[in-house]
Amino acid sequence: MAxxxxxxxxxxxxxxxxxxxxxxxxxxxxxxVVYFRPFWDRLSREVGVRVLSGAVRGxxxxxxxxxxxxxxxxxxxxxDEAAEYAQWQFHLGQLGDxxxxxxxxxxxxxxxxxxx
Length: 116
Description:
Blueprint: E1 11-14, E2 20-23, E3 25-29, E4 32-36, H1 45-48, E5 49-53, E6 56-58, E7 62-64, E8 67-71, H2 79-95, H3 102-111
Antiparallel strand pairs: 1-2, 1-8, 3-4, 4-5, 6-7, 7-8
């Protein structure tokens, strides 16, 4: 059984309208799930930090509300998102130890109104 909140592989969320986002940080939320998109540190909080409402179901893929979360595929199955994730990894390499620790990320999510 794969736990959505402890898996270390990159994740992809797909909304019913076909919109897809790479998920680089994932948190539990009373309403469902909070996730950070790549380059959340450069985006507005409304765009970079998102809430998925609904019960978390499944063991991978997972469903949250009507959205489906899967492990991010390779360049063959999710080429645009895989390229975005590769750019994010490069960005993280540039940040080094300046990237916030998990506790700091949780606080960022709280101040963005995402966590209680």
